[in-house]
Amino acid sequence: MSAREFIPPSADLTRLAEAAKSCRGCELYANATQTVFGAGPPTARVVLVGEQPGDVEDRRGEPFVGPAGRLLDESLEEAGIPRSEAYVTNAVKHFRFTQTGRRRLHQTPGPEHIEACRPWLVAEFALLNPEVVVILGATALKALLGGEYRVTRDRGRLLPFPVPTNAEETATHHTHAVITTHPSAILRTPSEVREQARVAFVNDLKVAASVLAR
Fold first, then answer.
1. What is the residue range of 32's domain?
2. Which of 4, 77, 124, 211 falls 20 to 30 Å from 201 in CA-CA distance?
3. How many other C-beta atoms lie within 10 A of the C-beta of residue 32?
């Protein structure tokens, strides 16, 4: 399974987003409300990559518009990163969940979903030239850098980032990456240490902001 056959040649971000609506690269499309593609300007200086859309995002069709998205927006502002200069997307474009009564509970995408959806990330990065990429959580980390790094061990420092390409291609340029936690993980943190987790998240974003300030 792969999204590769659904990607149109020579497309801009608008055409990619339109094409992604018809993606059947893995089985997740069957239960999700819709594809949730990336959003932001093609001139974005920073790209933020998360795991997958959540329940709110799945219903609205936009990335990072639920509680985690609000926390992200507030943290970006505190870190000094203009939201208008950011492009946000996810490693997996459909919401994976389990149904419990009326509730749809998040379910982590599997390696097969990450791999199937990777061509969309490749296509997005082919049209973007960010100065820094912020990797939000373990799923995005696996999608972008494989198994070499760990969130808890490697977060908050500048790392080299080879722009994702198809396996048969060679990366055309490199940029910087900063690994951090996903904002949804902060919302799940026990209340007595949640503020500490939020401050650590903002500090990681400030590392990314330091690249933009150069």
1. 4-212
2. 124
3. 20
Query: Which residues, listed in sequence order, are joined to residue 90 by a DSSP beta bridge?
Result: 50
Q: Name the strand (E) or helix (H) holding 118.
A: helix 111-127
How big is the CA angle at 65 (ends 138 and 175), to the nearest 5 degrees? 45
Residue 92 burial (CB count, 10 A): 28
Total count of domains within the chain: 1
For residues 54 and 68, give the distance between their C-alpha atoms in angstroms, rounded to a whole number. Answer: 9
The torsion of the CA quartet 206, 211, 212, 214, rounded to 10 degrees, works out to 120
Q: Which domain CATH number covers 94?
A: 3.40.470.10
Order of strands, sheet of 86-90, starting from the edge strand that comes earlier in the sequence: 86-90, 46-50, 132-136, 174-180, 158-162
Q: What is the pLDDT of residues 186-212, one digit of tens each?
A: 999 999 999 999 999 999 999 999 999
Rounded Cα distance, 176 and 182, in Å: 18
Closest CA relative to residue 68, chosen from 177, 194, 188: 188
pLDDT digits (tens, 9 = 90+) for 56-98: 999 999 999 999 999 999 999 999 999 888 999 999 999 999 9
Supply the pTM of this predicted model: 0.94
What are the CA-CA distances from residue 141 to residues 50, 111, 130, 148, 180 (Å)? 9, 12, 17, 9, 9
pLDDT, mean of residues 122-137: 95
**168 vs 125: which has the higher pLDDT:** 125
Q: How far apart are the first and last CA of the chain?
A: 42
Assess contact for 53 and 96: CB atoms under 8 A: no
